[in-house]
Amino acid sequence: MLLVLDLLQSIPSWHLVGLFFAGMAAFIISTISGGGGAMLLIPATSWMIGTAVAPPVINSATLISNTSRLYLFWNDMIGH
């Protein structure tokens, strides 16, 4: 947990805002096209926060994105 807080404090706030909007764009494109959102985030996260921390950030974003997509489309999946 301390590693995450240290990482967030070391990143400029405009990078975090940029990552948020890049993540939202990737989520929308990925939802419409059926996948590939993580591939869109690789260049943005690598440029903004560095290549060493990009894979864990992308993995966490993919987990959150898939969970939120499950919640958003639950009624369509179970057929109600």
Rg, rounded, reads 14 Å
> What is the percent of helical residues?
over 70%
Largest sheet: none
**Number of DSSP E strands:** 0
Could you please describe the fold and organization of this structure?
The protein has 80 residues and is mainly α. The protein is elongated. The model has no long low-confidence stretch (mean pLDDT 81). Helix 2 packs antiparallel against helix 3 and helix 3 packs antiparallel against helix 4. The protein has five helices and no strands. The protein has one domain (11-78).
In short:
The protein is mainly alpha-helical and 80 residues long. It has five helices and no strands.
What are the salient characteristics of this protein?
single chain; 80 residues; mainly alpha; 5 helices; elongated
Topology:
Blueprint: H1 2-10, H2 13-33, H3 37-49, H4 54-72, H5 74-78
Helix pairs in contact: 2-3, 3-4
